[in-house]
Structures are given as C-alpha cells and as structure tokens.
Amino acid sequence: NRCYLIHLMCDDDICYKRLFNRHSERKAETELIIRQRMKNFYEETVKVIQQFKENGRLIEVDSSRRINMFLNLQYYLKAEIN
Q1: What 3-state DSSP class applies to 61?
Q2: For the chain, how many structural domains are there in total?
C-alpha cells in the first residue's frame, strides 16, 4: 500500500486570519504565537511535504476557498489514487 500526504494549501494571510478568529476567545493566542506556529510549519513541516512530493505521494488541496472541504478532498483523492 502506498502512503500519501494530503497538504491543505492556503495563503499565509488567510491561514493567519482563520487561526486568529478560531482562537479569539483565548487570550494566549496572540499574533506572536500564531506567527511562531506558522514559522515552525515552514521550518519543520515543509521538509516532509517536499519528501512526499519528490516520491509522487503528495496530494495538494486548495483549502483557501469556502467550499465543502470534504467534497474537494474526495475529488482530489479519486483523481490521485485512481
């Protein structure tokens, strides 16, 4: 069986706004913390994403739109795996 990685791609500004709005009730979730989480993503996770891409096992899904993510994900999975 092949192992795939699903990369939900989103513009940094959209990502930041979603994280900030999602955690707006939490006082600890400041702009600085969100920026640090995004920095960590680029420093650590992007390497893994690149490895999957090089091995042809990366599925990239645009998650910036406001459509039903499950339908979008199902479309990409069928196209990539079949």
Answers
A1: strand
A2: 1
Task: With beta carbons less than 8 A apart as the criterion, state whether 7 and 57 touch.
Answer: no
Alpha carbon 78 to chain centroid, angstroms: 19
* Domain, as residue range, for 30: 5-81
Question: Average pLDDT of each block of 10 consecutive residues along the chain (82 residues)?
Answer: 85 85 65 87 94 93 72 70 63
* pTM, entire model: 0.68
Tokens 């650590």 found at:
44
Residue whose pair of structure tokens reads 């930041």 in the numeric block:
16
Q: Return all residues near 31 (Cβ < 8 A) that are at least 6 apart.
A: 20
